[in-house]
Design a protein that fits this description.
Chain lengths: 137, 137
DNA sequence: TTTACTGCAAACCGTTTGCAGTTCC
DNA sequence: GGAACTGCAAACGGTTTGCAGTAAA
């Protein structure tokens, strides 16, 4: 069983065929699907699943903190890798997204003198570039 | 005259009353307006300006590289501070956004071993926290 | 049995587009 | 004069919502 599914069951998330399929589709490394992509993949396993149900499930997973939402371009993407701090590396041409892991604490890069009195609690970092295929090297 | 307007004129951007107002509304420090906010402010100066014209102008300013687009929440925001590398510091409660300036080169934080063969050319960083008002301190 | 989830379809919101009319250079 | 911009209104794509029916616990 997928890690995500295991965690959700452990947290008493009410399970249905639809929710199971959404969780299974999302599980894995470097997964950053849009709601539409989740729906498409879920539909191959459970043809009667509806768009609204996919959105409902995704919204709850985000609220539970089991999935992260990334507001990259038009459509939001959903990232199941919520339990290990990481950043994103995106190809500007094909849109491929990889998870990358920081060396130190990225919050340390913002000195108090640049904080405008804010209480800073997190940081989102997206590196942009070209993947090996699109760079043509 | 605003800096932005000066630069645009220097680049031969065809000037109209509408475009001038959009550029004036955007000019300044820590400005991160949505298209709707730009339209609202522009309308107070030029009541007959249309939504489409605002979108047209914003799109061109982004293409010219004179304004940056930030895909924060639902609506995109437009940042005229395009000529000095910077990052954003956002209040999770009220949505206020400040520009902050990096100490070193943030690209250096991503080691080659974490680049998956990508040619990395840029990075977007958003710090999240609470502004002094919302933190209630 | 009760509470919560599902599917449908319409509504919603930010953004884009086609086109006739107008303006800048 | 001619190319480019403007305003209108309709279309669009992603997301949200209301509600009647269904299924999990």
């Amino acid at each position: 069983m997928s890690d995500l599914l295991k965690r959700l069951r452990g947290r008493g998330w009410r399970m249905t065929a639809q929710r199971r399929v959404v969780a299974e589709v999302l599980d894995g490394e470097h997964v950053h699907l849009t709601a539409d992509e989740v729906l498409a993949r879920a539909t191959t396993r459970l043809p009667e699943i509806s768009r609204a149900t996919v959105y409902n499930a995704l919204g709850e997973l985000v609220t539970l903190g089991e999935v992260l939402e990334i507001a990259d371009g038009r459509a939001r993407r959903y990232d199941p890798n919520a339990h290990r701090p990481h950043q994103h590396l995106t190809c500007s041409v094909c849109g491929d997204i990889r998870d990358v892991h920081p060396a130190g604490d990225p919050l340390a890069a913002l000195p108090a003198s640049e904080r405008y009195g804010f209480v800073v609690s997190g940081v989102e970092i997206t590196y942009r570039g070209l993947c090996p295929t699109c760079a043509g090297t």
